[in-house]
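ok so I'm stuck.
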Amino acid sequence: MTSCDPANTGWQRDLSVSHDRIGDVLVAQGDGPGALAAYRKGLTIREALAARDPANMHWQVDVAVSYSRLGTQTSLDVDTQRRFLTRGFEILAQLKSEGRLPVNQDWTDWFQQALHDLPEQ
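replied:
not stuck anymore, here's the structure
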């Protein structure tokens, strides 16, 4: 359906969520490369949505969620994981500093802990 109406942002967001869910299943099945591909597809959609409307807090949070999934994939090198996690943290920290991040979506502590838990290079 998203190809029938690519301007429908609701459908695009739903598709990005579907990619994340597929990625989660693939992780559980031990298919790291497949999960990475699914998460990257979701991120591409979410980044496009966020670029269309940078003021949309929900789309910015969605991008941070994609970064969290990618940043925890141990099949990626530590520097790449760190870049994803740092960017996700920065998005949420910026929204928080602007007073636009709902308390139930404040995962800044989680991002800081995930960054701390990465092995040193």
